[in-house]
Amino acid sequence: MKNLLLSLFVIVFLNSCSNGPSACDCAQMTVDGLTEVFQNLEMSEEEGKKFEEKLKKKLAPCEKNSETDAEFKKEFEECLKEKMNT
């Protein structure tokens, strides 16, 4: 019984990790990206494009979750609002 519960816990834990970042993690990544842009306003157009592609790739799971899960999108927006106000 103990091994069964441990196995179940491991499965649940691994599944929760594979779902990608949480809504608040996505909000933090968005804020971090914006902060980096504003700190590097003098970057070249080429550097800007590279950064944009890197950020899009990093935020792709967030965008996908926002498009498919209304609750995730709502939580993301709330976390983003909170993080932008601090």
Describe the structure.
The protein has 86 residues and is mainly α. The protein has one domain (21-84). 85% of the residues lie in helices and 0% in strands. The model is unreliable at 1-18 (pLDDT under 50).
The counted number of beta strands is: 0
Instruction: Give the number of domains.
Output: 1
Strand content: under 5%
Q: What is the radius of gyration?
A: 17 Å
Features:
disordered N terminus, 86 residues, flat, mainly alpha, 4 helices
Task: Give the SSE map.
Blueprint: H1 2-18, H2 23-39, H3 45-68, H4 70-84
Helix pairs in contact: 2-3, 2-4, 3-4
Summarize the structure.
With 86 residues, the protein is mainly alpha-helical.
